[in-house]
Amino acid sequence: MDPRSALQHYFGYPSFRGTQEAIIERTMAGQHSLVIMPTGSGKSLCYQIPALLYEEVGDVCPLTLVLSPLIALMKDQVDVLQSRQIDAAFINSSLSREDREKRYLNLANGRYRLLYVTPERFRKPEFLAAIARREVRLLAVDEAHCISEWGHDFRPDYTRLREFRERIGNPTTVALTATATVDVQRDIIHQLGLPSDTLTFHEGIERPNLELTVHEVWGDDDKLDQIVAVNERQGGTGGSGIVYFTLIRTLERFSDQLRIRRIPHVCYHGDLDRQQRRRIQNEFMQGHCPLVLATNAFGMGIDKENIRFVIHAEIPGSMESWYQEIGRAGRDGLPAEGVLLYDEADLTTQMEFIRWSNPAADFYERVFDLLVHDKEQVDAFGLEWMREKLHARQKHDRRLESALAMLERHGAIEGTWEPMLLEVTSELPAELSNGDRLKAKLRRDQEKLLALVQFIRHEGDRRDFLRDYFLGADPGPG
């Protein structure tokens, strides 16, 4: 079976789009690629088709290992593949211990053409033992911008991918993302240990069906009018819309106003329990409620074709975050809108968020010291006690949550925060005690926000600004 036959047989499409076929042919020839495609352009086919074409050796399926940070998306992707009679699975923390062990056994015994895991799975001895019994023919790194500290969603375990590739035999590798500046592209290739001349396939950033607009607004009333206007304009399309907020309390305030106007909607944010979030996501995906007000926690795992608009009611933290989030609109190729409402007063909130997400070295050291030397009090009194010790007069300061999240991502702590049951598993990581390095990261995050403000105030064609930002002077071959 050739790539086009596999595309028709398994997915029902008569032909490939853009550079998909060229990427697949290069992958089948055992050559590495970096793939940058706008959201909804079909990146996953670039590794799924090769996975289906590799010939079996006896009863053992050649394995394509897909690394993804998005647990929420794995199940949806695997469900779709299994519905097409493709032997695929995921292994992540959402499974029971019994189900994980069953899948480890299947993996070791030669099952699965495609297996989806997070990079953090490589910390687990049981996974390492099972994967060691397989030949990994292809490694697909999804959301590859997470590899780079220059990227907008850096994850420490992604920096170990060179080590992971070596552990599984340095297979053919394809790295995929929707957003990557030229610096991030170079860093992805370097961090993966790929040759410096690895071919980059860049489909640009153009989404012709997605209209981008920026409206400068003053206060809640102005914002509310804009949200209502877009919702009414798109109301007859039969599609859905997302309105993003930075703060939960702002989201709830706007929800109250929309209820007064009798505009049906649902709200999604991190303070809801997991069951509520799942129910709301399902209602949205099934079209029962076409409008959702959300923080940026919503969208990870959302693959809905008929989203007609994405509105940012508050300025996001970077050009990359904004571009990735508006990319959820118009995946069906029909007209859609990406609307950014800019109130200069919101800049203060975003600057505070950046400060909170970038604790200084001495703050990490104080947090780590509490976890090591005051474990009994930490376990007994939890986050509130730690906040009191760290910044008693700043109740809304979120640096503690950021510090714990980074310690967890670096593998220095394990356990849960609420209830507080944390175990220190290593020394304080050097990366989190290097003051110069942390200051440089803070400065880069501030520069990313500044770039978005410059985009907002740009008087020329904003698409030209986007091209310059993401592509630079030379987007590379492909």
Can you tell me about this structure?
Helix content is 44%, strand content 15%. It is of the alpha/beta class and 478 residues long. The chain folds into 3 domains: 3-202, 3-Layer(aba) Sandwich (Rossmann fold), CATH 3.40.50.300; 210-343 and 448-471, P-loop containing nucleotide triphosphate hydrolases (Rossmann fold, 3-Layer(aba) Sandwich), CATH 3.40.50; 354-433. Strands 3-4-2-5-6-1-7 form a 7-stranded parallel sheet, sandwiched between helices. A 6-stranded parallel sheet has the order 8-13-12-9-11-10, sandwiched between helices. It is globular and about 65 Å long. The chain starts with a helix and ends in a 7-residue tail after the last helix. The relative contact order is 0.10. Residues 473-478 have low confidence and may be disordered.
Features:
478 residues; Rossmann fold; 3 domains; seven-stranded parallel sheet; 18 helices; 15% strand
Going by CATH, the architecture of the largest domain would be: 3-Layer(aba) Sandwich
Could you estimate the helical fraction of the residues in percent? Answer: 40-55%
Low-confidence stretches at least 5 residues in length (pLDDT < 50)?
Answer: 473-478
Q: Which quaternary structure do these chains form?
A: single chain
- The amount of beta strand, in percent, is 15-25%
Distance between the termini: 26 Å
User: Biggest sheet, in brief?
Assistant: 7 strands, parallel
Q: Might you state the CATH topology name of the largest domain?
A: Rossmann fold
Mean pLDDT, to the nearest integer, reads: 89
Q: In one word, what is the shape? A: globular
CATH class of the largest domain: Alpha Beta
- By secondary-structure content and strand pairing, the structural class works out as alpha/beta
Read across the widest sheet, the strand sequence of neighbours is 3-4-2-5-6-1-7
Number of helices: 18
Task: Tell me the name of the CATH homologous superfamily of the largest domain.
Answer: P-loop containing nucleotide triphosphate hydrolases
